Amino acid sequence: MNMPTSGSRPDGAVPERILQSLDWTVVRRLDGLLQGDYRSLFYGYGVDLADLREYQPGDDVRTIDWNVTARMNTPYIRQYVPEREITAWFLLDLTPSMDFPVEPQRLKRAVLVDFVATLARLLTRNGNRVGAILFGTQIERTIPARGGRIQVLRLVNDLLNQPPLPRAPLTDLTPLLNGALHALKRRSLVLVLSDFISAPGWERPLKLLGRRHEVLAIRLWDPREMDLPDVGPMIMEDAETGEQIYVNTHDARFRRRFEEVVRRREAALDEAFKRAGVDALSLSTEEDLVRAIVRFAAQRRALRRRQR
Q: From CA 22, how far away is CA 114, in angstroms rounded?
């Protein structure tokens, strides 16, 4: 069952209507499927020490207790009691490639709005605070972290009112991540939503951000960016710069080269997230949002079990 909001944004959509639709089509289904266990999505972070245990491959090296490690001659990590309240920040890429393709019913931006509204709703229902940093050619707006349903409506409203950007040089996500590094003083849950179509260099600030905060990378993509159909001559346009080239998709060698470029880029992205030490969710514009969130929760539960 596909949710009606992702991929189909009706004309004149207003935040209240979007949130009501998400409450019925997404949040209620998640309540049933996750049975309220949202800690599988949001671990939280703690200040009260609960226990010590031996380090295992895949554990967060930031939790190593070096004094105990030196005494025992074996790496040990600290385990904390999770805090009840979470402050979450959405770092939102609103650059031109997020408005691919031309047809509005499948814009990555529409999926981004639905995802942000859903996660913000889940968080604020449990007394947590959410804020956002909106990024275009630069940081366009910062929405301070607050709680409550009104805050969720404000996030949705500001996203709906953020106009699409004209074509520009290739996006560079580094200023967004560096801006968050300097702006977020208190340890937080940070969700980076982007298609990660960017100039190189964003991996290092993402890694630094992950050392200070619990970071989740939500990578949005459209299947038509990955697959080149055999439809004959066509004009391809760069979603960022607007540059156009004429290609013949009947050419099998050209399609193979395209597939290889996509394969290498996907592998490079996976490796970049691993090096940065952040969990990543791949979210297609054609995927049901509920299934994607449940899949991500299961992925994080499995990772947590391996770390125990």
A: 7
pLDDT digits (tens, 9 = 90+) for 217-276: 999 998 877 776 666 666 666 655 566 676 666 777 877 887 888 889 899 999 999 988
- Residue 101 Ramachandran class (φ > 0 left, ψ -120 to 50 alpha, else beta): beta
Q: Are 174 and 202 in contact (CB under 8 A)?
A: yes
Nearest 5°: phi and psi at 75? -65, 130
Given CA atoms 50, 56, 62, 65 in this order, what sign does their dihedral have? Answer: positive
Contact 173, 194 (CB under 8 A): yes
Single out the residue in 35, 61, 81 at which a domain terminates: 81
Domain co-membership, 156 together with 289? yes
Q: Compute the radius of gyration of the chain from its Cα atoms.
A: 20
In a domain, 237, yes or no: no
- Does residue 244 sit within a domain? no
Distance CA 131, CA 145 (A): 4
Same-domain pairing of 77 and 194? no
CA–CA dist 129, 87 (Å, integer): 5
pLDDT digits (tens, 9 = 90+) for 124-167: 987 899 999 999 888 999 999 999 999 999 999 999 998 887 76
Give the C-alpha separation, 173 to 95, whole Å.
10
Nearest-10 Cα torsion for 175, 177, 181, 184: 110
Q: Which residue range is the domain that position 55 belongs to?
A: 47-81
pTM of the model: 0.78
Q: Which amino acid is at 209?
A: L
CB distance 65 to 56 below 8 Å: no
Spatial distance between the Cα atoms of 110 and 203, rounded to a whole number of angstroms:
26
Q: Give the contacts of 289 (CB within 8 A, at least 6 positions apart).
A: 3, 6, 26, 111, 114, 115, 118, 283
Are the beta carbons of 153 and 19 closer than 8 angstroms? Answer: yes
